[in-house]
Amino acid sequence: MNFLEIVAVTAGLGTVVAGAGLAVMWRLRTRSIGVMLAVVAVVAVLATVAGVTAITLKMLIDVPARDLVLSVVAVGGLVGLGVAFVLARQVVGASRRLAAAVREPSFVTPHGLPAELRDIARALEESYARERALEGARRELVAWVSHDLRTPLAGMRAMAEALEDGVGDPRRYPTQIRVEVERLSAMVDDLFELSRIHAGALRLTRTRIGLGDLVADTVAGVEALAVAKGVKVRATCEIVPVTADPGALGRALSNLVVNAIRHTPVGGEVVIRAAVQDGEASLSVTDACGGIPEEDLGRVFEVAFMGEKARTPTREGGAGLGLAITQGLVSAHDGRVTVANEGDGCRFDIRLPL
Length: 354
Description:
Blueprint: H1 3-27, H2 33-58, H3 63-103, H4 115-164, H5 173-198, E1 207-210, H6 211-229, E2 232-237, E3 241-244, H7 246-263, E4 269-277, E5 280-286, H8 322-332, E6 336-342, E7 345-353
Parallel strand pairs: 2-4
Antiparallel strand pairs: 1-3, 4-5, 5-7, 6-7
Helix pairs in contact: 1-2, 2-3, 4-5, 5-8, 6-7, 7-8
């Protein structure tokens, strides 16, 4: 046989075996990965054995030599199949160990996994850790918000009962009840906004806006609060156009400014700056709150974190959701928000892509 005949025979037999193997794999595509690996190994070995056997039978060689070649090919094929089946068992075993670990309450990456399965296991481990953290945050949120709701509700009930019994102040109590209702309404609105952010249901309407206009609107909105607290609000703005949702970004900035005013002592100053830094749009809010303890800097954006163990709400305070909402709104704009101590206070920075 010449070279072309050998190539034609081996190619033809390989094509037939490969076609049969693909058909079998299609039928078994929903079965175990071990079965799929076994089929691949069998196809490879059969294609090789079939080609060598066919060529050997057509060649004019002695019977003993031919039998020797066929024996070597058969033994090689069996060895290849044996190794393939061992590999398939190992892969199946690793997959089953991974599946068993996933079913455990606390997921831990099993030892001895192949590289690809190990990457999947590490991703699952990180996902489980995030889920546990979120679940813990949700439980804390429910506990803290329940406390924050219970206090004003108890006060409103007492005032309503006093009015019913005719012993309450009919001029002061209705006003106080309205104030508490407004606080509760604001808290419910914050919870709804936070739930939309966490559920991925936040929809932004992006337009081209100037950060200077956004800062001006924010300063106008917090003017009454600043006057009541005896705090000065100063803004310095450059011309910085960005593509953003004015309402969402305005609320994020307003949360920071209101938070800064509430924690700045009487006579202090809150400074708002809008500029371009390091190729990004920058919004910074600097206050005179006295600084944040270093151990709390990494937690200020956590849901319901208020930097104190006592959860008794004040008249002007909230439920600790404003900074978490700010972080969610800024992240929705593909930006980031950070905090650092600066001077006699702290500085919150919002960075957005230009």
